[in-house]
UniProtKB/TrEMBL annotation:
Pfam families: ACOX, ACOX_C_alpha1, Acyl-CoA_ox_N. It is found in: Peroxisome. InterPro entries: ACOX_C_alpha1, Acyl-CoA_ox_N, Acyl-CoA_Oxase/DH_mid-dom_sf, Acyl-CoA_oxidase, Acyl-CoA_oxidase_C, AcylCo_DH-like_C, AcylCoA_DH/ox_N_sf, AcylCoA_DH/oxidase_NM_dom_sf. This is Acyl-coenzyme A oxidase. Residues 279-440 form the Acyl-CoA oxidase C-alpha1 domain. Its main location: other. Residues 19-137 form the Acyl-coenzyme A oxidase N-terminal domain. One of its GO terms (molecular function) is FAD binding.
Length: 663
């Protein structure tokens, strides 16, 4: 049945300066890919097997069960429908799972990639086939109750016993217990266990081991294994993140994943070309998070922008009709920089994935020289994009006023299920400091006259501070890229100088690093932000872009860069690279850009192409019919099943009656 479109949203769509379909094509890689995406989404969204009561009305146990059941149906159907391509799977599963995951997400995101990346061909034959066909289900068990960040400090041990040709696995202390792995609490029967390898009393560092934790017959824990769910969290209710303790559990020598390193029968250790190859799965997921962060932000902005056109509040002028809240420039200032950021990170995510794919095929061929750049780039961009999405989603929620706090908006769930991306897979600061480490090394190399390549090439030739009295066009993307480049290069140089001066003052390397770490964090953030701005600007050099699309994307790119510049203005002013007049000009341009983007706002979020089924938000509905659906949704709340809740009889009635009797 065709539904009536909210007249405000209808008008918004009619006033756009471009056809959103053209941008959608640009974002999704062309009409054929877009057609396929829509086909897969509609297959999933119209499948009755994936319909169920709103998860927000369920207990945690019910959510776990619902998502598991749905996930199993999803896997079965993907097989039947032969959905095997990465993107095809991504679109289909996103439409099934909406803003949640399911208890086997880590099986797909980490367990399978670890087997693919760390197992020998023989081991793949044994386990990967089973895992890919879901004859077994596994997770990635690295983090312990005492250590997540400090992987080298993990306490779980795998001690080689040459007599039996086995490894003996132990979590020797409470703090060694594995804690957090997704799907370990109740679902998985296997894990890739990250443990310290010991041979004849000597430690060889953390290595991956295949471990069966539950019986394939009755799913009970294997001997020596204690395993369970870690309890409710901030979000992720559907997921059974787990704990695991091991007491003298023996596994065959063959269970060490030994593509890169191995233990010979006599206990000889064969070391890998780089110890960091063991961290490969984390790098893959970090690269993926750059992309997924942009997409959750895009969804939040879609919801808040559409709702801001439907929502009318207050009087701008006495006696006039209440304006759409998006007409308040302060509301635009809440939303449009987030809109621009969603576009900026969407394009960054694409670049990150292509750098990842290129680098990993080089690593596959034995060229590990690309590893440091890949690690530094993915760490910094993962940290930046997840933090930006976090802040942006919360701003979008606040922009929806009271209704933003309701689960009907879709925003709380989107937020609580996405915010782990800022912590999991490497905590924000920790990862930024990894990028800083690479920047410090690269800077030293450039000072020593080495030519730098890749994301740090700019450190070799720094933009000089221009002479005083010049004027700049702060809308010029070249000017903006130069400013970001200069800021990043200067902050890298100053952090390096600070580090050196701390050491010259007598601190050892570690203390000097710690003392400089706020500057290092700032430098790595500036470096990552520069990458995002430059990447956006470079994508606009695509000569095949339609002129109306080019115009509106240029505005978004300008807004993204200018907003970052104004909010970090101190960085640009400190060494007089920009002047106060430049910053004032930038602020004025932001206002002008927001006014120009205003008529295109709805079309720009429509272009992200999230169907209602995926947005899962009453506030963000495509047709804008918010209030009637809010009421309908509230009526479905379990508390409304009866007019009088049973607790009235149990508690409220006697309490009120007793109080009345006392009067
Ligand atoms: C489309 C798909 C979308 C998928 C995504 C969807 C996302 C949805 C959002 C929801 C998110 C929820 C996800 C749930 C799953 C989470 C799973 C986990 O958390 S699992 C658990 C995740 N856990 C974590 O992430 C733990 C975080 N901690 C760590 O990774 C490490 O301990 C460390 C990196 C901090 C330090 O490592 P350490 O060994 O102490 O190293 P040092 O500092 O001593 O540096 C020594 C040298 O090594 C170098 N190097 C380092 N790493 C790498 C690398 N990867 N490579 C290369 N090199 C590397 C480093 O540069 C340095 O080089 P140099 O200067 O000497 O030349
Ligand atoms: C939802 C979710 C799912 C997860 N899934 C999995 C999983 O499937 N498998 C798995 O193995 N793990 C998983 N994890 C664990 C996750 O990877 C870790 O929690 C994460 O890596 C952060 O480590 P931590 O908890 O030790 O934080 P901590 O390191 O204890 O962080 C605490 C604070 O210390 C600071 N800090 C720590 N070290 C440094 C440093 N060197 N320099 C400066 N500051 C520092 C941090 O910045 C932070 O502010 C999951 C976590 C979450 C939240």
């Amino acid at each position: 049945m065709a539904t009536r479109m909210n007249p405000d949203l209808k008008k918004e769509r009619e006033s756009a300066s471009f056809d959103p379909e053209k941008i959608t094509n640009f974002l999704y890689g062309g009409p054929e890919k877009l057609r396929r995406k829509r086909e897969l989404e509609s297959l999933a969204l119209n499948d009755p097997d994936f319909q169920h009561e709103d998860l927000n009305f369920m207990s945690r146990e019910q959510q776990y069960e619902t998502q598991l059941k749905k996930g199993i149906a999803m896997i079965t159907k993907m097989k039947e429908l032969n959905i095997t391509d990465f993107w095809d799977q991504y679109y289909y599963t996103t439409a099934v799972l909406v803003s949640d995951g399911y208890p086997m997400s880590v099986h797909e995101r980490m367990f399978l990639p670890t087997l693919r990346g760390q197992a020998t061909e023989q081991q793949k034959e044994k386990w990967l086939k089973m895992a890919e066909n879901y004859a077994i289900v596994g997770t990635y068990a690295q983090t312990e109750i005492g250590h997540g960040t400090f992987v080298r400090g993990l306490e779980t041990t795998a001690t080689f016993d040459p007599k039996t040709q086995e490894f003996i696995l132990n979590t020797p202390t409470l703090s060694a217990s594995k804690w957090w792995p997704g799907g370990m609490g109740k679902t998985s029967n296997y894990v890739v266990l990250m443990a310290q390898l010991y041979i004849r009393g000597k430690s060889y560092g953390v290595h991956p081991f295949m471990l069966q934790i539950r019986s394939l017959e009755d799913h009970k824990p294997m001997p020596g294994v204690t395993v369970g769910d870690i309890g409710p969290k901030f979000g992720y209710d559907f997921m059974d993140n787990g704990f695991l303790a091991l007491n003298n559990v023996r596994i065959p020598r063959e269970n060490m994943l030994k593509k890169y390193s191995r233990v010979e029968p006599d206990g000889t250790y064969v070391k890998p070309p780089s110890t960091k190859l063991t961290y490969g799965t984390m790098v893959l997921v970090r690269a993926g998070i750059v992309m997924s962060s942009s997409r959750v932000l895009a969804r939040a902005v879609t919801i808040a922008t559409r709702y801001s056109c439907v929502r009318r509040q207050s009087e701008m002028k006495p006696g006039h009709p209440e304006p759409q809240v998006l007409d308040y420039v302060t509301q635009q200032y809440k939303l449009f920089p987030n809109l621009a950021a969603a576009y900026a990170f969407w394009l960054t995510g694409q670049t990150m994935m292509s750098v990842y794919n290129k680098s990993s095929s080089q690593i596959e061929k034995g060229d590990i020289s690309v590893l440091p750049e890949l690690h530094a780039l993915s760490a910094g961009l993962k940290a930046l994009s997840s933090a930006r999405a976090d802040v942006g989603m919360e701003e979008c929620r606040l922009a929806c006023g009271g209704h933003g706090y309701s689960h009907a908006s879709g925003l709380p769930r989107l937020y609580t299920n996405s915010t782990p991306a800022a912590t999991a897979e490497g905590e924000h600061v920790v990862l930024m400091l990894q990028t800083a480490r690479y920047l410090m090394k690269s800077y030293t190399q450039s000072v020593q006259g080495e030519k730098l390549a890749g994301s740090v090439a700019y450190l070799s030739g720094v933009q000089p501070v221009p002479v005083a009295g010049r004027t700049r066009n702060m809308l010029d993307l070249g000017v903006l890229c130069d400013a970001y480049e200069h800021r990043a290069a200067r902050l890298v140089r100053e952090a390096a100088e600070q580090l050196r001066s701390e050491m010259q003052a007598g601190k050892d390397q570690a203390d000097a690093w710690n003392a400089t770490s706020v500057d290092l964090l700032k430098a790595a953030t500036a470096h990552s932000q520069y990458f995002v701005v430059r990447n956006f600007a470079e994508r606009l050099t695509d000569t095949t872009l339609d002129s109306s699309v080019f115009a509106v994307l240029t505005r978004l790119c300008q807004l993204y860069a200018l907003h970052g510049l104004v909010t970090n203005s101190g960085d640009f002013l400190e060494d007089d690279y920009l002047t106060g007049a430049d910053i004032r000009q930038a602020r004025r341009h932001i206002n002008t850009l927001m006014a120009k983007l205003r008529p295109d706002a709805v079309a720009l979020v429509d272009a992200f192409d999230y169907p209602d089924g995926i947005l899962n938000s009453i506030l963000g509905r495509y047709d804008g019919n918010v209030y009637e659906h809010l009421l309908e949704w509230a009526k479905a709340s379990p508390l409304n099943i009866t007019d009088v809740h049973q607790s009235y009889q149990k508690y409220l009635k006697p309490f009120l009656q007793a109080n009345r009797a006392k009067l």
